[in-house]
Amino acid sequence: MVRNILALTGSGVRDWLIQRVTALLILAYVITLVTYVVQHAPLTYAAWHQFFACHVVKIVTTLILLSVVWHAWIGMWTVFTDYIKPRMLRRVLTVSVIIYLFYNLVWGLDLVWSI
Amino acid sequence: MSNTGRIIHITVYRFDPDQDSKPYPATYEVDASHCRGVMLLDALEYIKSHLDETLSFRRSCNEGVCGSDGMNINGKNGLACITPLASLPDKVTLRSLPSFPIIRDLIVDMTRFYKQYERADPYLQNTGDAPAKERLQSPEERSKLDGLYECILCACCTSACPSYWWNPDKFMGPAALLWVARFLADSRDNYENERLEALQDAFSLYRCRSVMNCADVCPKGLNPAKAIADVRHRMLDEST
Ligand code: SF4
Ligand code: SF4
Ligand code: FES
After folding, report:
1. What is the mean pLDDT of each run of 10 residues along chain B (240 residues)?
2. Whole-number Cα distances in Å, B170 to A12, B123, B199
3. Chain A residues inside the 8 Å CB shell of B205
């Protein structure tokens, strides 16, 4: 089959694995974050700032940002190839999502590493 | 529910591509006690021989073995020949298998479905030396085929699969994938790599989203969704 260049990897097993691994990472991250917030309630800006100033947190957050982008790319590509049948519309939508995800990634990285 | 004197209203969505632009409902009143047997197929036979000889449907074995009479019965795919009238309400609606092109009334075009079956290479392949007589299999090895070999290719599962509705040209569908699993599980076959290789892309196998509609409707009680999950795990084992 012709490889779909707008798909993330084009390999079924790789996409499948990435989706599951990134989902678990994101879940673990959210749980950690929520736990931190609950433990430090009421959360002050200072505590929040200190938390994100830690290098480990920055690196992990970077990984999570990448995970979200990967996960959403595969997910949205799948949804579009299921439900959007006109080719041109599908291309435009998929490319828009990819651009939007990258914009968010750059923005997120800028935020995290400027602390 | 007893069939004595029971009147059942059977609505069949009829379609003749030469005359109709889309299927339209036609309702027949059937006295269940006049049918020759107790199954839905017997009621269809009754309609054809007593009420309307133009009604078209496929049938052959009459006992759930040939897979000819798959149809949508009150919204759920099944075989008319093994669906007891007693299990149905007094109003029954029949449609041809969803998403399959209609040839006429309840008869659908199975060409694409068989092509997908063909893609599964449904025969033993082995690079080893040919044995003098036959390749033997232990009872344990043989038992691995249980739950896989019984498929009668009725297409009830594939026609009920949402992933198949959206991508029938790329996703192989549950029935064909069950057949892939059947040959992967066979100790007499050593083409595992080639078989998996053919399903690498993002659609053929991986479009299954584990909705389980397939397992829900299979009249033989098989579980294509689980077979697909097993193939995925093999793929993962081979590629990591
Ligand atoms: S489990 Fe997979 S093959 Fe079965 S109906 Fe759902 S998507 Fe289709
Ligand atoms: S798996 Fe079941 S429903 Fe699907 S084609 Fe085979 S017998 Fe029919
Ligand atoms: S007639 Fe053969 S399966 Fe129903």
Report:
1. 81 96 97 96 98 98 97 98 97 98 98 98 95 95 98 98 96 98 97 95 94 96 98 91
2. 12, 22, 11
3. 12
For the segment B139-176, what is each residue's pLDDT rounded down to a tens digit? 999 999 999 999 999 999 999 999 999 999 999 999 99
Burial string for B185-207 (b: 16+ CB within 10 Å, else e) reads bbebbebeeebbebbbbbbbbbb
Of A4, A12, A82, the CB nearest to B206: A12
The verdict on B165 touching A (C-beta cutoff 8 Å) is no
Residue A68, domain extent: 12-113
Chain-chain contact of A13 with B239 (C-beta, under 8 angstroms): yes
Residues 63-82 of A with CB under 8 A from B: 78, 81-82
ipTM exceeding 0.85, yes/no: no
What CATH number has the domain bearing residue A108? 1.20.1300.10
Rounded Cα gap, residues B50 and B53, in angstroms: 7
The answer to whether A12 contacts B200, with C-beta atoms less than 8 Å apart, is yes
Question: For residues B115 and B27, is the Cβ–Cβ distance under 8 A?
Answer: no
| Count of structural domains, chain A | 1
Ligand closest to CA B165: 1
Residue nearest to atom 3 of ligand 1 (CA): B174
CA B60 from chain centre, in angstroms, equals 15
Residue A76 falls inside a structural domain: yes
B200 touches chain A (CB under 8 A): yes
